[in-house]
Amino acid sequence: MEQLKTRIKVLVVDDSALVREILAQGLGMDPEIEVVGAASNPYIARDKIVQLKPDVLTLDVEMPRMDGVEFLRRLMPQYPLPVVMVSALTREGAKTTLEALEAGAVDYVTKPSSDIARGLDSMMNKLRQKVKMAATANLREWKEKKTAAAAKLQPVSGAAPAESTDKVIAIGASTGGTRAIRQIIQSFPASMPGVVIVQHMPAGFTKHFADNLNNICEMEVLEASTNDRIMPGRILIAPGGKHMTVKRSGGVYLVECREGDKVNGHCPSVDVLFHSVAGKVGSNAIGIILTGMGHDGADGLLAMRNAGARTLAQDESTSVVFGMPKVAYELGGAEFLQPIDTIPQVIMNLLHEKN
């Protein structure tokens, strides 16, 4: 009986009866998870959330009558609940999934597009893992009923020093990172030094992520390509499925994007980026680890700090998942922990401090 009490209660929401059955059976294979119900649309889901009080919701992105994003926008301010989206690996699916993450979803998995049998096993393994992670996610922002508009940061005070054109700001993030990254770079003035970012995402998602950020930031935001220059006023996002590294050519910094084996379970990997920044930029860099599950980036941030860079990590109270920042801090890579809303100003202060 005690075991049943500690299992994670999951409600599956999908308009396809077959998908609901597959997800319920696949999740039920894990002894730590109990599927307490299923719903074919958000209206039924709403009633079952109240009735069954699930710990985690799995939610189809595209549904008739009300899509997953609209449902999230209505659900989260009233009934904050960890949600894992189930998304199609398509252009439209990627766009909608990013909207869902902005609306409050903790994470997502993508449906297999080829080799269904093998892809389905891989998807279910990821879904089980992410459901268990979501059950521990920090939803403080939603529980305090902060809207995205209310949480919008004020621009940082002051301008980047004129001598900071050779500086590089490197950021790594995973679960919860899309919102955290937006909060930070939306506050940057166009004069900020060049920024390089790894956010754990598959191919096809990072282009939409970069385009969305470019529409709301004073800095130019691009999905990176090999030989793109790191320069003031520009932010480069590592493309999904490729590692991004920094190299020096004459007096300028460039990026290189290449396919490769996963590092710490990820491609792109934060560690790969940070180690290259440590080697090529050294004390001219600032490194930041944001919310995320696992330990990717911790070793690289330590290498950056040992090379003379200034380093910090997001604190537990504002991290959706305090995994990567915690490991980075305990390893000694992050000098200090900082709430997300103060990180932009801290970066600006460090830029001035270093000149």
From TrEMBL:
Transmembrane spans: none
Main location: cytoplasm
Cited SUPFAM superfamilies: CheY-like (SSF52172), Methylesterase CheB, C-terminal domain (SSF52738)
Keyword field contains Cytoplasm: yes
InterPro entries: CheB-like, CheB_C, CheY-like_superfamily, Sig_transdc_resp-reg_Me-estase, Sig_transdc_resp-reg_receiver
Entry's localization field: Cytoplasm
Keywords: Chemotaxis, Cytoplasm, Hydrolase, Phosphoprotein
Active-site residues from the entry: 174, 200, 296
Stretches assigned to the CheB-type methylesterase domain: 155-354
Protein name: Protein-glutamate methylesterase/protein-glutamine glutaminase
Entry function: May play the central regulatory role in sporulation. It may be an element of the effector pathway responsible for the activation of sporulation genes in response to nutritional stress. Spo0A may act in concert with spo0H (a sigma factor) to control the expression of some genes that are critical to the sporulation process.
One GO term describing the cellular component: cytoplasm
Modified positions (4-aspartylphosphate) in chain numbering: 60
GO molecular function: phosphorelay response regulator activity; protein-glutamate methylesterase activity; protein-glutamine glutaminase activity
